[in-house]
## 1
Amino acid sequence: MYHNFKMVATTMFGLEEVLATELTNLGAQDVEIGVRNVSFVGDKGFMYKANIALRTAIRILKPIKRFKVFDEDDLYKKIQQIEWERFMNVDSTFAIGAVVNSKNFTTNSHYISLKSKDAIADYFRHKYHKRPNVDVKHPDLKIHVHIHKDLCSISLDSSGDSLHKRGYRNLTNIAPINEVLAAGLVLLSGYRGDCNFIDPMCGSGTILIEAAMIANNIPANINRKEFGFENWEDYDEDLFFKIQDVLLKKITNSHFKIMGFDKAPSAVRKAKENIENANLSEFIGVHHINFFNSAKEVFGKTTILFNPPYGERLDIDINQFYKNIGDTLKGGYPDSTVWFITSNKEAIKHVGLRTSKRIPLKNGDLDCVYVRYDIYEGSRKAKKLKKNNETDADNLEEE
């Protein structure tokens, strides 16, 4: 029987509640929302499950020590007091990442990483007359040092590479959306595979792939080659495969359409290849179509979700571009819930539709807003008129 311990899942700004819901649904205990992170309790098997299944987590950290810290020398001494043999040996390779938010430390995060690295290397040198090597690219153990005011947390990174590296995306375009953000956008939209789904400016297909995995309950990181915990001293391979099998048995089948358009043939090619890498070709169709010359060809309720150009990198009249988006949606996409993310809060006014929801998010360093528009079967005016006529007819019958 494995014992429970506290873990921290890091995420992007604005996705904390989505991640907390994911963790609760997965079976985590004592879920608590922080800023860009969610803490929770689970055992070793749950740590494996969280890494394989979570869509909006960037890393799953396992804290091993917390202490008060006053300066660099104090940090060095306290890191040396940890029994590092429990987590690695003298032949292991390691790497350290640090985040510092404290007036006690005038140095930058890089210096804190170096100081922590020296403390661990010297610990082994004093005891075994040999130092473990640092390997920044493929370490056996990735360690996180987080200092906030006078509190320091030392954690082991169970994920290794960031969890946004799903393992399916070989080809990208100029400004590819991060996979974790793409999954977060789909989950925030409420889409769960229960209606049609369109990304009208699909680029290399990331949003489509994340949507298809959500629609069919496919674990987000099932295509990953490796997780950090696989190199840990206490890695349990049988348990890992057992957890993976249980998750694979929960895959479902959505029968609604998932479609992507792009006006660039190169983007369509890249999207198709990435979709094939993710083993999702049977669920997603990608077409060489200019959205502005398109209309909705599927019946029934549809979620439209896209990440249009913000104007930062492209030489276009962004106000006119956003006006064209609004006109195309109004004219050709009835009975749709539309979501898109942008950092251009001025240009969004030119869409010419009323937003029914606005959610602040970050895309990299950019402050963004994620907006929702509801496009009805007819116009609101026509809908209201129809309703009034029906009411008048009912009243006449009653008379």
## 2
Amino acid sequence: MSLRTRVGALAALGVGLAVTLTALAAYLTVSSQLQSSVDANLLDRAQQAVSTPFGDPGQLVNQPAEAILAADLRIALLREDGQPFTADARSTPPMGRDELAVARGTEEQSVRTLRLDGEPFRVVAVPAGRDPIGAEYALVLAQPTEQTEEVLERLRLVSFIAGGAGIVLATWAGLSIARAGLRPVRQLTQAAEHVAATGQLEPIEVTGSDEIARLAHAFNAMLAALSEARLRQSRLVADAGHELRTPLTSMRTNLDLLAQSEASGGLAAADRAQLIADTRAQAVELSTLVGDLVELSREDPPAASREQIDLADVVRDALGRVRRRAPGIAFAADLHSWIVQGDATQLGRAATNLLDNAAKFSPPHGTVTVTLRDGVLDVCDEGPGISEVDRTRVFDRFYRSSEARGLPGSGLGLAIVKAAAERHGGSVEAGRAPSGGARLTMRLPGASSTALD
């Protein structure tokens, strides 16, 4: 069953139960009231009959029913020995033990339903006094219940018709309400099916502010996030293809030159060595670029479940590697222990990239200042610095400022720093150093920080 059908069925069931209970309560109430009214009327007539001038048992039985306002009744006197007396034997009411008990004085009155020749009667009995010889009597009145049964039958019919109509209307209303209320859900379903079939991440129109509208807003936000992820992926692929094209073209050119030289007698030893060195450098650059792309493509969770490491030791190892690669640059380090929970390889790569970037932009014999205090790693150089326009973009993938375009690199080093910091619950920022150069800052929470939770 569809959700719409289930909602309609539940509405019909709920209204059907309510209508059924209401009709049953009304029927029972009316039936009880009618029965009470008939009983009260019969008892009142019986009491009036025994209190009339004809109340003497000897005369009461010989009076026509109209004399005691009982034309629709059967009337009789029942003596304590069980002998009935009536003016017309054909109109004798049904009688039994309860009426005899009233005649004998053991009961004040009796009210019950009896059948005579298959016809139901409501029978009441009240004491009617004594005759001259001292025998006690009871006055018995019996009224047919045919009119009451007709009224109750009509009430049952009306209740059944009204209940059926209520259930039909409730079903129609439930289906209509379900169709209107579930329209946003149907739109969400169609939108999801459209995305799955076409791949087009088009948001849907949202109206209202209820729970379904919130679901639609969340769906649109998910589509926006997917669209942004797809855009970033396309940009990464395009930028990576552009960056890979340069070293591949250079390597192919060098290999073509080697092949042509071999066909024409070969190159001089120095030229051949230079060509091979250039090809090897391009292969190293290509390998580094591929490694950077792999690093950026990782989607590791935050480092909450990794080992505890001292960030100062990681930075010292990175300093050792960068000093060997940049012997003309001086490094002044002031490192204080800071325990973090994370991946030493990722953090080492990030620290190395920060130091390599500072060494690349530092002038010959310049000094790079490295400080680590309370989880804040500052790397300052004495280079040209970073302009205000570029500070917000230097950590983007493949972004290279105008000053860096003539230098080696792919524009992925600082993007890797940002990715590593964010994977460890930290952040990065660019600023200006006191010397006027660039200042790159990476902040990481300690192992006991709630930022890792």
## 3
Amino acid sequence: MKTLDDLLGEGVSGRRVFVRADLNVPFDKANPGVISDDGRARAVLPTLIALRDAGAKVIVASHLGRPKGAPDPKFTLAPVATRLGELLGSDVIFAEDTVGADAQAKVEALADGQVLLLENLRFNEGETSKDDAVRGAFADELATFADYYVDDAFGAVHRKHASVYDVAARLPHYAGGLVVKEVEVLRKVSETPEKPYVVVLGGSKVSDKLAVIQALLPKVDKLLVGGGMCFTFLKAQGFEVGKSLLEDEMVSVCADLLEQAQGRIVLPVDVVAATEFSADAQHDVVEASAIPADRLGLDIGPKSTELFASAIAGAKTVFWNGPMGVFELAPFAAGTRGVAEAITKIDGFSVVGGGDSAAAVRTLGLDETAFGHISTGGGASLEYLEGKTLPGVSALEK
């Protein structure tokens, strides 16, 4: 797989470089158009700066949200162009379409060292189409814009989309520094993790994490389970879980996993149980084996946080994906905070597996540099650890 360094070594001054970035940033629900977390935009800066400073004409493309293959003002990348310009310290030109007249004109007018951001790729149905011909036709149009292709969107490499998979087949292609780093880190924790190896999983559903649990269980010393998914495991132990999130169809699967693990799966011993899903709801710490029928668990409790922190303390490798509770609501953030802080203190290598975990680090104001690596791709990270082929990575390797 050729890298950005290889491309820079060949020389890009005056050449057009198409950069697939992951600018799928979250917005403040109370203030439309205001980015609440620009972590993904900051992650691609080194690649954009290197190309800009080398004199390339940089064409950046990304998706945002899930529009239905047509323009939707709710998902415009215009605010992202503004923020990207602020981060780069220079104006970012914005094209109001993907491959239409505005994009074509602005690509043609690009000067050396300028950066252009195309409108949301998913405004074109060809981006996500499962029809190879439709997807390929869109990729053909995108490929006419550039001389080279750089993929630095690790958060999208698990998708067989036009800008991720098909454009790479049409241009000389290179992996950006972010993609290279992500693959190196995930290869390390999946193939050669230093022991003891502890994995911390949270999030809402067991079904979403089943494949990664099955892939990692033979490799780990401890698998700590929190978040909404823990209640299906607790039910598998014979405990009642009240109104907590529960996947009935997964209870027997969890029972089998607990038997296979032979004590290596660690579950909460207490939880913060509330009367409803609200920051203002009445809530108390209860034993995990005695959740009241009219309550739902929204965080792991203090004993569980101590238990998890103790298991983490001696680890040489930690992989964390998924919060321990509803960290966005202050009364239910302590478990996630406590576990995250424990991870920062290990004498070893830690990986935050993107998604809500990465968002939690920033939302809770934790020191990002205290973690070994914070991934930009939650779904891509999990699929890599499951052993799946990532289309965007395989395209770069061809």
